[in-house]
């Protein structure tokens, strides 16, 4: 049996809408973007959403538009794009420890890492579970810090009933492994109109109105840049996929949660592994399903699962602070973040996507029991 790590949940609806866009001739940023942004903003519960070409662009645009040049505290247990966006935008990453159970940033270590140079916090919601945002927001308010939520892995996740992306500036990913996909793509969410306008301009060469918006005014050819900008725009083609994916999001998240419950039940009595346990007050949407190996050789276990056709992986090894660029340029060293380092050496990502069948889930459980 072959079971991929992830598989996008696409139907005829997406193909039909893409075909309509192709036939329309409007392939760049256009009407479908506005439709996608409206649907996404409504789902999260914010006033504004901006569709972009990736979550990395969303993170960069958020840091840049907030004018951050000092320190931004984030976890090292994340994909390198989180830290890269901070550095590329002209600020400095400061890595905080994570909690063993959730893999999310530890608010207590955040407090220890704050200095007079700290300007923002970037909590990363790991694998579909929200960080403890009440504590994060309390810290931010006390120290007058901006909050950028890296919600790449947490579309639909909630903390105390509030969706991620509503606490601070939300940054989302639509990569094929995520809870919805557009192939490549990202979104920024905010309730701040001025920030929304700034990010829109930054993403479109510094021009405040998009091409489709300019067609509604008397001089559509008038394109005046208010700032130095970039081309971070999502195409009308990809936005059409996003519109259809939004209609399926709740169904897909419910399926992920059901699969996770099935795996938990099947794996709970294996003494050498630790199954994912949702943090109190969190609604987990399982963008990834991760287990931790308590004893034994993690890498060997991943290889043995692959030999059995199960595309297991690791997220994240090495953590960002132990990657060459960050060790060389920011003085990071092994031993700086012991929980993060231990977690990166013990975690295993198992297949997780809506279409998983009970037969496949059972095969994963049996294979793990056999190889551990």
Structure in words:
The structure is a single chain. The protein has helices at 12-24, 31-44, 55-65, 81-88, 107-113, 133-143, 193-203, 211-214, 236-267, 298-307, 324-330, 338-346, 358-371; strands spanning 48-52, 71-75, 92-96, 118-121, 146-150, 158-159, 162-163, 169-173, 186-190, 273-274, 282-283, 289-293, 347-350. A 7-stranded mixed β-sheet has the order 1-9-8-5-4-2-3, sandwiched between helices. The model has no long low-confidence stretch (mean pLDDT 96). It has 13 helices and 13 strands. Helices cover 41% and strands 14% of the residues. The chain folds into 2 domains: 12-247, Type I PLP-dependent aspartate aminotransferase-like (Major domain) (Aspartate Aminotransferase, domain 2, 3-Layer(aba) Sandwich), CATH 3.40.640.10; 249-371, Aspartate Aminotransferase, domain 1 (Alpha-Beta Complex). Strand 4, helix 6 and strand 5 form a beta-alpha-beta unit. The radius of gyration is 21 Å and the shape is globular. With 372 residues, the chain is α/β, with parallel strands linked by helices.
């Amino acid at each position: 049996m072959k079971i991929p790590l992830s598989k996008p949940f696409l139907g005829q609806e997406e193909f039909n809408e893409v075909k309509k866009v192709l036939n329309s001739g409007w392939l760049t940023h256009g009407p479908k973007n506005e439709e996608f942004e409206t649907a996404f903003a409504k789902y999260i519960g914010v006033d504004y959403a901006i569709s972009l070409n990736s979550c990395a662009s969303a993170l960069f645009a958020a840091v840049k538009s907030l004018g951050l040049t000092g320190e931004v505290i984030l976890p090292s247990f994340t994909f390198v794009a989180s830290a890269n966006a901070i550095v590329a935008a002209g600020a400095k990453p400061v890595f905080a420890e994570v909690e063993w159970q959730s893999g999310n940033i530890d608010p207590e270590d955040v407090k220890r890492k704050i200095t007079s140079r700290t300007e923002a916090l970037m909590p990363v919601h790991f694998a579909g579970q929200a960080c403890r945002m009440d504590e994060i927001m309390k810290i931010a308010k006390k120290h007058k810090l901006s909050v950028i939520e890296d919600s790449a892995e947490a579309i639909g996740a909630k903390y105390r009933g509030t969706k991620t992306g509503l606490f601070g500036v939300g940054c989302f990913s639509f990569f094929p492994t995520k809870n919805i996909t557009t192939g490549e793509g990202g979104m920024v969410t905010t309730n701040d109109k001025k920030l929304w306008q700034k990010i829109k301009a930054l993403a479109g060469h510094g021009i405040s109105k998009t091409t489709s918006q300019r067609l509604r005014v008397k001089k559509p050819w008038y394109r005046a840049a208010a700032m130095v900008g970039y081309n971070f725009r999502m195409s009308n083609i990809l936005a059409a996929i996003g519109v259809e994916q939004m209609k399926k999001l709740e169904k897909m998240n419910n399926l992920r949660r059901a699969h996770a419950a099935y795996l938990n039940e099947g794996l709970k009595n294996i003494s050498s592994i630790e199954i994912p346990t949702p943090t109190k007050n969190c609604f987990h949407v399982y963008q990834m399903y991760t287990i931790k190996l308590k004893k034994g050789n993690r890498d060997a276990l991943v290889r043995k699962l692959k030999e059995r056709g199960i595309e297991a992986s690791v997220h994240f090894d090495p953590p960002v602070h132990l990657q060459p660029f960050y060790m060389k340029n920011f003085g990071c060293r092994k031993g700086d973040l012991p929980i993060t380092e231990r977690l990166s050496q013990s975690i295993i990502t198992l297949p997780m996507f809506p279409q998983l069948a009970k037969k496949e889930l059972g095969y994963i459980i049996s294979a793990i029991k056999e190889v551990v």
